[in-house]
């Protein structure tokens, strides 16, 4: 009897702990963005222009290459699609390991973003890669307005 009760109690406790953890997991990114004025400043000064010029033309309102949109944080968090599988592009536990960083570093021949054009590298500049990486490590806060693709 005692054991049964104890089992039940720890079950209730772990359910409670899980729901709290779930709550945090869900709210943490939002908090990170809201409580991150420095990050939003970096976004508006450096990241929005990069996304607008180099990414959102293929990952935005008009086109969603790889099923991915990078125009808002919410869309970025949804990730891309490979057939029916979701492809996470931002790693909420370890942002430094995010697929977005791997893609822009151009080290993985199977995933280089922006993609090569007529066999020419379209790799971002070292400074842009550094800014994007810093921003992702900050939790990838976005500004209020969605990113709109820059006219070509
Ligand atoms: C010319 C169109 C084009 C541009 C510009 C572009 N991408 Fe992509 N992206 C693609 C395509 C197509 C895929 C699907 C996978 C593949 O074919 O390599 C993809 C896939 C990805 C993926 C892997 C997840 C998935 O959904 O497959 C990431 C991450 C990504 N892009 C990030 C970026 C970032 C960051 C930029 C800007 C620096 C960017 N892309 C610019 C076309 C583009």
Query: What best-fitting shape do the alpha-carbon axes yield?
Result: globular
Q: What would you report as the Rg, rounded to the nearest angstrom? A: 19 Å
Q: What do the pLDDT scores average to?
A: 87
Strand/helix succession: HHHEEHH
Strand composition percent: under 5%
Number of domains: 2
Number of alpha- plus pi-helical segments:
5
Largest sheet strand order = 1-2
Ions, cofactors and other ligands present here are: heme C
Helicity level, as a percent range? Answer: 40-55%
The biggest beta sheet is recorded as: 2 strands, antiparallel
Count of beta strands:
2
- Catalogue the unreliable spans: none
Structural class: mainly alpha
Distance between the termini: 73 Å
């Amino acid at each position: 009897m005692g054991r049964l009760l104890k089992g039940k109690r720890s079950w209730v406790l772990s359910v409670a702990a899980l729901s709290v953890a779930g709550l945090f997991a869900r709210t943490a990114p939002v908090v990170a963005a809201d409580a991150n004025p420095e990050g939003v400043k970096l976004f508006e000064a450096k990241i929005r222009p990069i996304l607008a010029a180099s990414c959102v033309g293929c990952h935005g309102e008009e086109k969603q290459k790889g099923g991915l949109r990078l125009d808002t944080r919410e869309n970025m968090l949804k990730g891309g699609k490979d057939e029916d599988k979701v492809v996470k592009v931002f790693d909420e536990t370890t942002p430094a390991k995010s697929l977005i960083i791997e893609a822009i570093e151009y080290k993985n021949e199977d995933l280089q973003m922006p993609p090569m054009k007529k066999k020419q590298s379209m790799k971002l500049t070292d400074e842009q890669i550094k800014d994007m990486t810093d921003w992702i490590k900050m939790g990838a806060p976005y500004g209020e307005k969605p990113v709109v693709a820059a006219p070509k």
